[in-house]
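Minutes, structural biology subgroup

Action item carried over from last meeting: produce the structure token record for Cathepsin B (Prunus yedoensis var. nudiflora). EB confirmed the sequence was re-checked against the source entry. Recorded below for completeness.
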Amino acid sequence: MNGRKMATIQQLYFAILLLLLGAISNFHPQFIAAKPVTKSKLNSRILQDSIIKQINENPMAGWEAAMNPRFSNYTVSQFMHLLGVKPTPAKGFAEFSYFNSSEIFEVAN
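Output recorded by EB:
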């Protein structure tokens, strides 16, 4: 190959690389809260002693809950932000219908 064709191929590869990097950098998974969360719930602590107690008193739980000091002071709002949850859209999810799977399938006893 001559030098000119080689330069064109390198430019093409570089352009493709830039397009791929641009596509990857713009891909951010976004999560939307399915139901609006009340302000009192948003300000409550994410880890609560009552939940830990409830899990630990359940013999069928299969695991033991404990308070993680890293997250012990987080509120629900802070944790939702940490997870990347977006606010519910103004229109909400009115166009979606929710149903229980037992309404569709009869479960055999």
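Discussion: Residues 3-25 form the longest helix (23 residues).
Next step: EB to file the record with the rest of the batch.
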